[in-house]
Amino acid sequence: xxRWQAGLSLxxxxxxxxxxxxxxxxxDLVDDWPALGKPGVPVPxxxxxxxxxASAEKLEPGSGMKAVDCAADHATETFHVGSFTxxxxxxxxxxxxxxxxxxxxxxDQQAKSFLDGDWHDGRLVLRVFTPTEAQWRGExxxxxxxxIEVSDDNGTVFTRKASLKxxxxxxxxxxxxxxxxxxDGDGFIDDFVPIACEQQHNGEYVGTFYSPDARPYPSDAxxxxxxxxxxxxxxxxxxxxxxxxxxxxxxxxSFAWSTAHQSRWEYGDRSARCYxxxxxxxxxxxxxxxxxxxxI
Length: 296
Hints:
- The strands form two sheets. Strands 2-1-3-5-4 form a five-stranded antiparallel beta sheet, covered by helices on one side.
- It has helices at 2-18, 101-115, 133-137, 221-240, 244-248, 262-266; strands at residues 49-50, 67-68, 76-83, 124-129, 142-149, 178-183, 189-194, 203-210, 253-259, 271-278.
- It has six helices and ten strands; from the N terminus they run H-E-E-E-H-E-H-E-E-E-E-H-H-E-H-E.
- The relative contact order is 0.12.
- Residues 1-19 have low confidence and may be disordered.
- Helices cover 23% and strands 21% of the residues.
- The chain is α+β, with helices and mostly antiparallel strands.
């Protein structure tokens, strides 16, 4: 037992000797290590694409949106990232509604530059995404500007495999044009579905009307009609090359509109896309731009 104790003591001395400070060091394992940075939430990258839900209005950050390369199947593309500041950044939860007005204004302007045109003129939905509540608690204060290509006016996501950059330039491959107006069993408009103008169709996008003021979302049908009907009528008449009085005499054409989703209206997208429509069972296989009151 004594020999074992003596052998252990010698081994321990040898071990401690081997663990001495290397040449050129002071033996302090703490003072030479840099302090760890404060943990934070990664800021999304511009040019990042994401998978997501089948509806543009139901896309929300979190587990339902997975980051992917834009060459892969994706639902949405981040084209700009900004930061909340001031009182908006001081809230206990991510901003919503009217609190997103400045962020939306930034996204709207950046979208025009990114697309080389007004996104309302394309088969597109613009969304402003905030951090999740967990990310906000982690002091994330970014907002994402995302564009989503859709296959109809109801916001059905069209899966892309390429960036949307400059798609309203040149040949304008993403531009809205002729549509098939879909109605429900009661004859009410259900959807406007984009279609090539060379195919038989019964409607056409003519432009977007923007509310002249910051009024609340016109949830009442009468309020919507009062606000939007005059604006869309003027756009339709201009598209056809007519005065509004001349358009009133046309028995073959009417018009309708599609209002921005209420959540987007509340943060600043106070718009309505305006469509001319052919009456009854009429259809054409061409654009009616500049058609005037010529028979169809």
